[in-house]
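Support reply, case 0932

Customer input (verbatim):
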Amino acid sequence: MAHNNESVRASGVARREIWAWAMYDFANSGYTTVVITAIFSAYFVKSVAGNLTWATLAWTLGLAVSYLLVLVTAPVIGAYADLHGKKKLFLGVTTIGCVVSTAMLATVGPGDLWLALVFLVASNFFFGTGEDLVAAFLPELGKRAALGRISAWGWSLGYLGGLLSLGLCLAYVAAAQAKGEAASSFVPVTMLITAALFAIAALPTFVFLRERAEPNHTKVLQINSFGRLVETWRSARRFQDLGRFLVCIVFYQAGVQAVVALAAVYAEQAMGFSTSQTITLILLVNIAAAMGAFAFGHVQDWLGHRPTIAATIVGWMITIVLSWLATSAELFWVAATLAGICLGSSQSGGRALVGLLSPKDRVGEFFGLWGMAMKLAAILGPVTYGGVVWLAADDHRTAILTTGVFFVVGLALLFTIDIDRGRKAAGASD
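Our regenerated output:
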């Protein structure tokens, strides 16, 4: 194990630093699992917004605003943190921001729509910004050939962190429901549990992870982050297969992000699930996602990148149809399990293919575009779902079926990509 560990570490990097870096994934995953996917989303629609026809749309627009803020500010914050050697300081600020605004969601009760939206936008903005900042440490920690493995360790720990947060919340919610408490009583406590676990689990990152970037004051005045982003996008157009795949990601991930942001809402609104049933459902999805990411990582190497990603997109289409058809809890559980398997595999598979099609000396830049494509998808998918629910007079089944269109378009775009040609273009650039 020690030998393997040394073979992945960059020179001067301690073993505990890699563990401390991966622990941030463990720490922050509870936020997305509990707040965005499992508990607060359904509570917002049902209790805070009183199940009004525009409640789902309001939830998705709140998420869209936060992702748009991350999209606009990420290039500036990332470049400034790099050039001043202050990634760790900025990560600390975003962590405190997310922990505090998540804890403040505990003050939200029925009818507190604007208060809920303010703290939702703030917490998700801090979460997304922190996610970008912690990723920027990865190239400093490992040898180039081992970055995928180190990233996967973080990914795996992230699923465990999400499961722990959700498990603690489920235990509390089940006890509260057994006493006959209302959601307005127990949901705020789950926000405090999530915030506390985030704060405690993130401590190793700030204790052991070193800031290696040296301040570079000569470049500070020259930098134009957005100009660089535009230049990177122009460069990506020279790599036509990579460019097409980034557009493909926007579409199929729009479908994925709609499911992630609205799974609990759909479970409660269309299927009539209770809060504890919904949490148990999302626990199952997370376990299936961890298994899917692990299994398909090996399948991808054996079967090939495009067939593997195509298989996961088809899996998503089946999930959507099963969810639309489901009138019994049993069929919906099957759909949720399939969604989990597809969730882990489609996300890890997409990231691996971007790495494969990127020139070695510009991987960081093109992963910046990958992050941008993911944020655009996180705006497009959920807002489309929310809009359809509003226009279709609160019909969640029509909305989930509409989400399937994103997967159809994504699959069609995937078949226009020539992996060999894309790899040759990346190799020629190197």
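We compared this against your earlier run and they match. Two observations from our side: The chain is about 85% helix and 0% strand. The first helix runs from residue 2 to 8. Please reopen the case if you see a mismatch on your end.
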